[in-house]
Design a protein that fits this description.
This protein is an alpha+beta fold. The protein has a single domain, classed as RutC-like (60s Ribosomal Protein L30, Chain: A, 2-Layer Sandwich). 26% of the residues lie in helices and 31% in strands. α4 packs parallel to α5.
Length: 247
């Protein structure tokens, strides 16, 4: 299931053309995460990321994950239009070959005070390791099953937000996360951070669906934000990263 991306010194779980389901650094390499103190619009963000990676004496192909903030949710056509624009830079960097995209991604929409245009919140890249600990980033996943079909066909309890429906949505999202962790041979006990994205009240499901399954090993960060596609209500991502910086 996994594929190697030797040019970036990491392996990844294939997904769709706009992103992979997760990345893990190769032996003797580690993932470093860098968060912007203030959001940076997409084009400027790519430029600043390139400068940072090159200053670290790493190739642009070491870019392996990013976290985006978008102005508002869109329909499937709008999401595809954005992604076709987004991957152009990855192609220029020698990462996206027109079909396969190894870069993991989370892209969410802040409910209050969102950016006026798609912007970078954080990014990750690989560099020679300072230790022997493995590192990985699991891409954002929501309550939709994989495979063919439109989002309305794949979303768990489509357009329902009752407590029971939200419990099922959370279980589906957790299952997506756990499948990705397992693909790399990891589990929740290996993670160093987990992020939650929703504007719904998810507290009734926290204890049984998140904490008891291990997702809060290092606590959880809640972002009052929506997944990027209309009618999705709950998204998560998780990671094991030892080196993190804010610039």
């Amino acid at each position: 299931m996994m594929r190697d991306f030797p040019a970036g010194n990491y392996r990844y779980i294939p997904a769709v053309f706009q992103y992979s389901s997760g990345v893990a650094a190769d032996a003797d390499f580690e993932i470093e995460r860098v968060r912007f103190d203030k959001w940076v619009p997409l084009a400027d963000g790519f430029a600043r990321i390139a400068d940072y990676i090159l200053a670290a004496d790493r190739p642009l192909t070491s870019f392996c994950a990013c976290e985006l903030r978008s102005p508002a949710v869109v329909d499937e056509a709008g999401f595809r239009k954005f992604n076709e624009h987004y991957v152009k830079t990855l192609a220029e960097w020698g990462i996206f070959d027109g079909t396969n995209n190894p870069v993991a991604r989370s892209n969410v929409c802040l409910e209050i005070d969102p950016p006026s245009e798609p912007s970078f919140y954080a990014f990750s890249f690989t560099r020679p390791s300072l230790g022997a600990k493995p590192t990985f980033v699991i891409a954002g996943g929501a309550e939709a099953r994989g495979g063919p079909g439109t989002y309305p066909e794949r979303i768990t309890r489509y357009r329902e937000t009752s407590p029971d429906a939200f419990r099922e949505k959370t279980r589906m999202t957790m299952s997506n996360m756990e499948e990705r962790l397992d693909a790399f041979g990891f589990s929740w006990k290996d993670t160093t951070a987990t992020q939650i994205y929703t504007v719904q009240d998810f507290h009734p499901v926290v204890a049984n669906e998140l904490v008891k399954r291990g997702a809060s090993r290092q606590g959880m960060t809640w972002h009052f934000a929506r997944p990027p596609v209309v009618d999705l209500e709950f998204e998560m991502d998780t990671r094991r990263v030892i080196r993190e910086f804010v610039i």
